[in-house]
Amino acid sequence: MAVGSLSDAPKDLLKEIKHLEELFTIDTAKLKEITHHFVDELAKGLSVEGGSIPMNPTWVMSRPTGHETGNYLALDMGGTNLRVCQVTLTEQKSEFDIIQSKYRLPEELKTGVAEELWEYIADCLQQFIETHHGDVTKMDKFPLGFTFSYPATQNYIDEGILQRWTKGFDIAGVEGRNVVPMFEAALKQRGVPIKLTALINDTTGTLIASAYTDPKMMIGCIFGTGCNAAYIEDCGSIPKLAHLNLPPETPMAINCEWGAFDNEGKVLPRTPYDIAIDKDSPRPGQQAFEKMIAGLYLGEIFRLVMVDMHHNPEAHIFAGQDISKLRKPYSLDSSFLSAIEEDTLEDLSETLDLFETKLNISPNRAELGLIRRTAELIGTRAARLSACGVAAISIKKGYKSCHVGADGSVFNKYPHFKARGAQALREILDWPEKTNPKEEDPIEILAAEDGSGVGAALIAALTLQRVKDGNMHGILHPENFK
Ligand code: GLC
Question: Are the beta carbons of 3 and 372 closer than 8 angstroms?
Fold first, then answer.
């Protein structure tokens, strides 16, 4: 019998499972419909009127050659951790050395006061420099790439006006403002003489870091706490930059911020669980696509299904048990779903253990089957939807064959995510079945190089080089580039 086989489940439970399958399954036709709309929305985001997807120009205007060199600092403010790196791009082509420290981003800072966030970040940077270099005053020659992975308007590479917080952050007084002076003020207060060279997004960093070692890399994606992608557009296809009169063939990396795809609810088959997540989030109506895919939400979607199946009189799972632990919002993260999908035991006893230890619930045999199927449905839907974004960029750019660099906890750790995404891409783009399983797909999604470390350093290097070459487009503080 297959793992978690449902053949012995009671009739009512089978009916509920079938209903969940209908809610969460996205067939090929729907994938194609979503992708089609996605292609239009990418173009709309680049237009003067704009659309849901921000399509932010990043002022990253070239690909790395592999010959970039020098010492850089990289600061990464992701959704979960804060990381400080010193990156050395060595003389050897496409090689680098990295020293790094990770700091936990305290949960309360994510919804706290802006000053405390900047002070915490500045403290971590100062601590890193003191540990590795002793004297902070000698550091002013190290250019800094700051990976700030939220939607930001960049009229210049050394500014970032936060459009809105995503990934559960909700810090007052930052949206609509340039975060660079706030960050620099905190550094100045501590006497840390670092100057910011480039503010970047993790997806752009991922694209550039991966392109450093692989010339076939055309798209950078993050499937982690959040979900997003970047690619390189030509300025002639960016009407909202037309007033700058850049030569039409000039390359410009675009941070899509595709998490906002279909905020208006035209094509995504949202379930009542997705709608509930959105309603109770700090930014209802935002990040519709991301809320169906990203690691921050997968466990929560699952939790909501479980609570619903408990109250549903037909399913009535965990009858008579205390489900108070399960009632706590965001108490299950995506690693909980990963663990369920990784249970290879026929009786799903690892899943049973997990429920007993983490939730104090003992599911029966049939309920375990439903749990397993729910995890599969949520994980599969996320992977298949994410393929729509990759397919849309590839169609827009006419890429028939390329590499896509992907990073993030969901991509790297969630079981079958890669295979399910690749299968969906095959369906959307109508590739014939492989004759040899070892053969590469025309568009292959691969594990990326470290975008917010090496990528941030590379982008700082490319920016300095560009200024040296006299291309001052998108530079706000030229004095910092001397
Ligand atoms: C969210 C952010 C975006 C980031 C992504 C992955 O979607 O808005 O900037 O790239 O998460 O971290």
Answer: yes
Is the predicted pLDDT of residue 1 greater than 50, yes or no? no
Just list the catalytic residues.
149, 164, 202
Please state the length of the chain: 482
Find where tokens 């120009």 sit: 57
Residue-wise pLDDT for 226-253, tens only, equals 999 999 999 999 999 999 999 999 999 9
| Residues 378-418 pLDDT 10s | 999 999 999 999 999 999 999 999 999 999 999 999 999 99
- Residue of 155, 139, 158, 150 lying closest to 198 (CA atoms): 158
Cα(263) to centroid(ligand 1), Å: 15
Report CA Rg, the chain.
Answer: 23
Ligand 1 pocket, residue 228 CB under 6 Å: yes
Hunting for tokens 């850049």 — which residue is that?
246
Closest alpha carbon to 177 in 189, 203, 159, 156: 159
Asked if residue 338 lies in contact with residue 415, where contact means CB atoms within 8 angstroms, the answer is yes
Cα 443 from Cα 97, distance rounded (Å): 29
- For residue 145, the number of C-alpha atoms closer than 13 Å in the C-beta half-sphere is 33
**Rounded Cα distance, 143 and 398, in Å:** 36
Q: How far does residue 230's CA lie from ligand 1's centre (Å)? A: 10
Per the prediction, the chain carries an average pLDDT of 94
The backbone torsions φ and ψ at residue 91, rounded to the nearest 5 degrees and listed phi first, read: -65, -30
Name the phi and psi angles at 435, rounded to 5. -90, -35
Return d(Cα 224, Cα 80) in angstroms, integer: 10
Please give the backbone phi and psi of residue 149, each rounded to the nearest 5 degrees, phi first. -90, 65
For residue 177, give the amino acid letter.
R
